[in-house]
Structures are given as C-alpha cells and as structure tokens.
Amino acid sequence: MVFPLKLPKKFSLRTRLFVVMILMLLVSGALILGTTSIQYESQRENYHLGRLNRKEAQIKRHVNHLVSKNNLHNKADSVWNQFNMDFEKINDIHSVRYSLFRLDGTPLFIYHTPLEIIANDYKLDQVLLEKISNSQTGIYLEHYNSDIDKFHASYSLLKDDENRAYGILFFPYFEDISFSENELNSFLQNLYQIYTLLLIAVIFIAYFLSKFVTRSLETIRVRMAQTGLQKKNQKIYLKNATREIDSLVTSYNNMIDDLSESAAKLAKTEREQAWQEMARQVAHEIKNPLTPMRLTIQSFQRKYDPNDPDSQNKLNDLSNLLIQQIDTMSEVAEAFSDFASLPKPNMKECDLVEVTKMAVTIFQEEHIIFSSNQAHIIHKLDRTQWIRVITNLIQNALQSVSPKKIPQIGIHIGGEQDQTTITITDNGNGISPNLKDKIFEPKFTTKTSGMGLGLGIVKNIIESHGGIISFISTPKKGTTFTIVLPTSL
Predict the structure, then answer these.
(1) CB atoms < 10 A from the CB of 133, how many?
(2) 362-379, pLDDT tens digit by residue?
(3) Residue 2: DSSP 8-state
(4) Which residues does 476 contact at the CB level (< 8 Å), separation at least 6?
(5) pLDDT mean across residues, the chain
(6) Among 27-31, 331-335, 384-388, whose mean pLDDT is lowest?
(7) Is 371 within 8 Å of 413 (Cβ atoms)?
(8) Structural domains in the chain?
(9) Is the pTM of this model over 0.85?
(10) Cβ neighbours for 118, distance < 8 A, ≥ 6 positions apart
(11) Can you tell me the distance from the alpha carbon of 173 to that of 59, in angstroms, rounded to the nearest whole number?
(12) How would DSSP label each residue in 214-230?
C-alpha cells in the first residue's frame, strides 16, 4: 500500500513578512536586554572593585601611620598589643572590620576573618601565603561565596618606608547591591514597557505593511487562477506598482495576448480538423453503398436482354438493391445529422424505472433481465433521448455476444439519496485494453457495419442530463457500462 505524502502547508509571503518583522523586533529587544545586563554587571563589578581599592588604600595608610609612629616594625606581639586600642579605632573611623597578620600568617589583630582561617586557628595557610607573595602587585583578591561567608576579601602586603614587607592586611568588602539591583530592575521594567508598546505598534505596522506589499501579488495570483484557455481573460492594470511588480504584470499581460492568439488558432485548427474528419467519415460511409450500386448496374447493362422472359424479375431485383443502398445512404446522413445537431433535451419529471423498462421491452428478448432496488424513481430527463440511450447500449451489448453463445444482458437501476446508478452488463467479447480510450470517439467502431456514432451520441445525451458514463470490460468475458445521474439538476 502506498501512503500519500502530506506536505506541510506553505506560508504566504504576507505571513512571512509579518513574522519576520515581529521576529526582528523580538531579537533586537533580546540583544539590547542581554548587552544592557552584561554592561550593567560589568559597571557594577568595576564600581565595587574601585571602592574596595580606595577603602583598602585608606586603611593601609592609617595602619602604616600607626606602625611608623610607634616604631612597631619587627617588634614582638606584646609591643603591638600595647597599641590595640589605636588599631581597633580604625574599624570605627572607616566603618570596616579588618585583620592584621604577620608574614608567616600568624595573627596580630583579628577583628574579622573567614571561617576557613578561624578553623585554621586564625592563621593563614601556606597556599594562601604563596598566592599573596606571588602576586605582582602584592595584593591578592579572594571571593568567598559560602552560605555564611559571602563577600570579597583583599590580602595585601604592608611595607615600610624602605619597601620592606612587615605584615599582611586582611580587608573584607561587603557589596551593598540593593541599590544597584533596584536601579537595574527599574531600568528593565521601563524597557519592558517600552518594548511592549513597540511590539503592539509593530504588529499593526507589520500587518498593514505586509498587506500593502502583497496586495499587488494577490491581485496577480487571483487573475492567474482565473486564467483559462477557453475563457475571456482580463489584463491587469496596477497603479504605483514597483518595478518588479510592474515587470511581472507586463509579462502576464503579454502572456494573455499570446494565450488569446493561441486559443484562436487552436479553435480554428480544431474546427478544421473536425470538419475534415467528418468529411472523410461521410465520404467513406457514402462510398460503401455506391460501390455495389455501380458494380450491379454495370453487370446489369452487360447481361440485360429485353427478350429474356425473366427480365422483369431481374429489373425488380436491381430496383430493390438500389433502393436498399439509397436507404443506407439516407441512414448515414441521418446519423451524422443527429450527432452534429443533437436537439436540446426537453427535461420533464419522469419515472426513470418506467421509462427504462419501456425501452427494454422493445427488444422482446428473454435473455434481457431488468431489475431495480426501488419501484419508482423520479428524475428530470428527456424521455425520447433516454430511450435512445438504453436501446443503443442494449443493442451494442447484444451485438457484442458471439453467435455461439447465449446472450445474457442485465440492466439494473440503483436509487440512492443523491444519485441514481444504472448498469448494463453483457457477456460479450469485451473491449480490448488498447481500445478503451477510443470507445466514445464519434468515428470509432469495432463492428463491421455502422458509423460508430452510437456511443458518442449516448455520451452527449448523458452529459446533457448532468450525468457521467463509464465502463469496465474484461476481454472474452463481457462489459459493464455504468451511468450515474444526479438526483437534481
């Protein structure tokens, strides 16, 4: 089993323009929001880092002043402790909590320190000391981000006037981010409001702009959909069209001119071919009886003897033959006349079952079986033409059966809610597959006699009644013709 491939529905150009404009606004908004957040975070980081450096420089100057003033370089802890009050006042003066360590990491004054250092008996570990000593500036920044300790800290070397290190200053810096976060939130809120208004405005602008841009294309599409070979096509005239649209319209109008000219030439050619074909067919059918007439008259001329006692009978035979052939030519002319000018159907409400049964009884054949699923089926149809359809199909069915077989012809009418189906089935020789496309052609026939116009006339009558005719055939087994008529015209 082959499953049909379902292709996705294609978006129109108008929809694509609309979506692209909306996406451009959304992407630009996301980019602005992202770059603004990154820039704001960078500025905040630089601001707090600068503030840390300034605070740290102030404390270092104050500590160096006390150390130089009291000559505490390389002095014992007991000497340092004598000035404990002076070093503690630095916390109140600068509103900070710092700590001092010796170069080996042992504490001098501890006012604030991370839990890691407290856990190490208030000493700086060797790893941290190496990081501080390896720093080119003599300052090492550490960021503590645990649940309890969350701040920046600076470890910087304290040096005397001769640039000799004598201690390590620990300075914690706690960021006050409430103001910056409020400022950022306020900025983002204003940005959201602006972009919401812009989005609404762009939706309206994109809608009308896409409609304006595609209006000309839609006009061309509608006209092209209405274009047909057998229609009177109209050209397109647009005002203020762009160069590309104007070029497309010009090409379309030129195509309409070419199509009109081609349609006229095609119609002329088809008419000429139809008349030529009809003339050949008529000439062929008339020539068939003329040949035996000519041969018979020539033979009669040679053999006729007025004194022959049987001359009167021979003259009568000649007259009968001529009359028979003349009747044949008359039938040819009448058949072509019927096909060329089939009268307009006189539609009246009739009982389809009754009219079909009447046509079947004409043949008086016991091998023809008629059936219907309803006793009465009312249809609008031309009685005379419908009888002609049924008789023609039955006659073709009878003629398709070999003389060695007993004909079995079945006519069945099936009435449904919206249509009626009529089938004519035979057990004849069937129709060869390579002849199925030609069966309804006016000049086509598989019989040795006749003009081959019967099925062509049948098809014209059925189509004038709004129906369709088709057939299924199996060679050597038979053929079934199916007629489908709508319940209402």
Answers:
(1) 13
(2) 776 788 999 999 999 998
(3) P
(4) 429, 430
(5) 78
(6) 331-335
(7) yes
(8) 13-180 (3.30.450.20), 244-340 (no CATH), 348-486 (3.30.565.10)
(9) no
(10) none
(11) 12
(12) HHHHHHHHHHHHH--TT
